[in-house]
Amino acid sequence: MKNKSFAIIGGDRRSYELAKLLLEKGHRINLYGFKKLNLDNKIEEAQSIKLALKDVDVVITPIPITRDKININAPYHESDIPIEEVFKNMNKNQLLIGGSTSVCVELKDHYHIRVYDIMDREEMAVLNAIPTAEGALQIALEQTDITLHGSDTMVLGFGRIGKVMAKILSGMGSNVYVLARKHSDISWIKSYGYKAIYIFDLKEKLPNMDVIFNTIPKNIINEELLKLIDPKTLIIDLASMPGGIDYNAADKMDIKVVHALGLPGKVAPVSSARFMLDSIYNIIEELGV
């Protein structure tokens, strides 16, 4: 691909690793939002958002672009970076790529900026599920005192992350129970050798679980269901904010719940950056940027 100029605004370690990969490929990089991170000698941070966005072809924002719907998701920056400041300093010839960008619809229309949600790419969403599932597995190993081999584990949801999670757990010798709503998913779950659970079976199965992995982004485990769960059970919530667990009720019952957000950037930033790079190249090629 012809060399391009990129601005990478905020993000976790995968965004920084992406900057390094783009630089290695011969692209020009402007970085902003990483003041707290020790940067490679070859990369310098722009002094302002305006300078970072000046004369670039593509603007890369985090996955997700924001956690509070107001500011860029920039855990390594010293202060807030309002999303609107990014749009305000862009021009209509530039392309913005980020994750979960639906919160930016009004800004996109107001400033006439092209926006592409990288998580709408199937290849990105599927590959992103791998470090998410591996990160969840790491949490389970660190925060329980049992082996996952021979344990009873439950995966709530059979989307991309649920599929990868169930496969990894099964490979470790765990007794895997998977909750799904669609009859087609139930059939696939059975074909893989997992134990399929319908929503009406949940109350019966929950008390016997050692670890529960939730991937459903709505309140699936409410107070009523939490009462059925053994206090020794670990719940790992992989769903995006606000998650799928009644956290207040779980806290009162002393049930341990880990809301594991942003795992790809924490456990496998280099691999995650490579996945991002491939998808970004595909987007640029398809849009003719």
Automatic annotation (TrEMBL):
Keyword ATP-binding: no
Molecular function terms, GO-annotated: NAD binding; oxidoreductase activity
Keyword terms of this UniProt record: Oxidoreductase
Domain Dipicolinate synthase subunit A N-terminal, first and last residues per copy: 6-119
EC number: 1.3.1.-
Chain ranges of the D-isomer specific 2-hydroxyacid dehydrogenase NAD-binding domain: 146-239
Cross-referenced InterPro entries: D-isomer_DH_NAD-bd, DpaA_N, NAD(P)-bd_dom_sf
Entry annotated with the keyword Oxidoreductase: yes
This protein's name: Dipicolinate synthase subunit A
Organism: Tissierella creatinophila DSM 6911
Gene behind the chain: dpaA
